[in-house]
Amino acid sequence: MCADPRSPIWRRRDTERRLAHDVDVWVSSASPDGTPYLVPLSFDWDGTAVLLATLADSPTGRNLAATGRARLGLGPTRDVTMIDADVEMVGAVPPQEGDRFAARTGFDPRTEPARYRWFRATPTRVQAWREADELPGRDLMRAGHWVA
What we know:
By secondary structure, the protein is an alpha+beta fold. It has a single domain, classed as Pnp Oxidase, Chain A. The protein has a six-stranded antiparallel beta barrel. The chain is globular and about 50 Å long. The protein starts with 7 loop residues before the first helix and ends with a strand. The mean pLDDT is 95.
């Protein structure tokens, strides 16, 4: 257990640091009939949205395209950030965004022989907590607006 619970402001700083520096995120999606699917994907954060790429014919690619919703998980279970997001399929990312994604992740979907789809996930709700003592105040964003 951590010494003291973090304030919501401190949790937001930690969340923003994780978004700026982590490379991979767990992406939870569901098919239109509700079948869940969970997969780790590399990502880039531009300060407002998470850019993801996945195989076009993968369950995640199909689910995100069909439903436009995802839940993202960052960090270990004892220091987790959960992000509910609206997801839009992006036809082709501008070169600078693709270059930034490739530099950050070490992976460039644009150069792969298989067809990848790009998705932009815009957070609508963000929660962060370490232990049970941080459950109160875990909501950092609601309805797409930071509350901490």
